């Protein structure tokens, strides 16, 4: 067995070293423990620690004014040395030149009895200083928002986020109850948390909410805050998929001016889009035919106005998606399909009529540009005057007239005529 080597000036230091050796032995692997002497080595350390404790206990009893003695000698000196140390103290008493402290190592006299801490350093006043950790208010606020709240808000945003961003920011978001209620829960919870922790505006500034009506702007602000602070992933809102808008080529058949059914090729469809007077029958075959006409050679589907004067590139990609009420919409310019179909129908129906401005002529393109709101007004006016909805307009002439006749007779019946 390897006997642990401990050479110290006093018992207190020896006790510290013995404890360190025992702790190191406990953490050693099996091979090292065996090399050191195994269990016998451990027992010898434990015995030495016990002897040191006993020695200090005897000294403390004889010198009650000292908190923790540091005395010369060592348990290595054997039991006789322990007895001798105590006997010397009793003989010397208070009659010697140094009093009862003569048994302490001269180098350690008047330094006090406190053992040095291996982990913390004391100041000159004997006080231990704790490290002050200043917590970030933002991180505390982020932690206080539960995963359930974030999950519910994100689910609502996936379903309605595009409509929220496209809506009037000043209007109340009463339509989307679940999203609104979750937003209120988060806003109130964070407000209470900030008030409880007494954060100043300089430390943390929260979204202003007075507990009243939740507007679309407030929902957008909360969404942006959650994304900015990495509690939600941005740009994941689910975009409505336009009905009937697919990448697959749809076969379009129309009735030409001679009354013959013909199949439109890709080049013919493109000509129908850029030339108002060609193939007017494309607006008598329903929405599917309109979509194929509005698809350009690059496969992009845009209304006539956006195709000629609208946004391009990244600006087009960032254009807000219209509200769900306008669905379906065109996948590239994001204009409502009904409005785009009405615009194409008007261009085809008025092509060649004298006195009516024509696309492709001398008039600048921007002067013939139409927006979704204006097209809604025009469509509403046509329906009020004829009973024809946009879908009704996209039929052959005889079918349109039949709808108008039934509408007119019903109107006349209401007037008692």
Automatic annotation (TrEMBL):
Protein name: Uncharacterized protein
Region (Disordered), start-end ranges: 63-128
Top-level taxon: Eukaryota
Polar residues compositional bias, start-end: 63-94
């Amino acid at each position: 067995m390897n006997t642990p080597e401990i050479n110290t000036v006093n018992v207190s230091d020896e006790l510290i070293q013995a404890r360190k050796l025992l702790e190191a032995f406990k953490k050693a692997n099996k091979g090292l423990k065996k090399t050191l002497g195994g269990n016998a080595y451990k027992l010898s350390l434990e015995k030495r620690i016990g002897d040191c404790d006993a020695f200090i206990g005897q000294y403390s009893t004889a010198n009650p004014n000292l908190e923790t003695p540091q005395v010369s000698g060592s348990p290595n000196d054997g039991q006789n040395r322990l007895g001798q140390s105590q006997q010397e103290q009793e003989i010397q008493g208070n009659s010697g030149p140094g009093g009862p402290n003569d048994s302490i190592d001269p180098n350690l006299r008047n330094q006090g009895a406190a053992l040095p801490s291996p982990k913390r350093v004391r100041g000159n006043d004997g006080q231990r200083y704790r490290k002050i950790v200043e917590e970030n208010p933002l991180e505390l606020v982020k932690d206080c928002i539960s995963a359930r709240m974030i999950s519910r808000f994100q689910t609502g945003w996936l379903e309605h986020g595009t409509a929220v961003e496209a809506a009037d920011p000043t209007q109340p978001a009463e339509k989307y109850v679940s999203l609104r209620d979750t937003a209120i829960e988060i806003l109130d919870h964070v407000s209470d948390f900030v008030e409880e922790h007494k954060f100043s505006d300089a430390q943390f500034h929260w979204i202003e909410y007075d507990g009243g009506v939740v507007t679309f702007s407030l929902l957008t602000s909360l969404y942006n805050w959650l994304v900015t602070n990495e509690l939600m992933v941005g740009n994941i809102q689910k975009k409505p998929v336009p009905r009937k808008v697919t990448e697959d080529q749809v076969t379009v058949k129309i009735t030409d001016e001679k009354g013959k059914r013909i199949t439109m090729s890709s080049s013919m469809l493109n000509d129908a889009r850029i030339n108002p007077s060609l193939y007017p029958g494309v607006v008598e075959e329903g929405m599917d035919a309109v979509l194929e006409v509005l698809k350009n050679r690059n496969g992009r589907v845009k209304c006539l106005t956006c195709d000629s004067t609208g946004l391009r590139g990244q600006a087009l990609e960032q254009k807000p998606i219209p509200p769900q009420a306008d669905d379906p919409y065109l996948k590239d310019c994001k204009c409502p399909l009904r409005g785009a179909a009405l615009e194409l129908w008007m261009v085809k129906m008025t092509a060649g009529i004298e006195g009516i401005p024509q696309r492709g002529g001398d008039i600048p393109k921007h002067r013939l540009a139409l927006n979704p709101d204006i097209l809604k007004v025009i469509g509403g006016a046509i329906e009020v005057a004829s009973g024809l909805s946009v879908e009704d307009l996209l039929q052959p002439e005889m079918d349109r007239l039949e709808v108008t006749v039934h509408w007119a007779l019903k109107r006349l019946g209401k007037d008692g005529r």
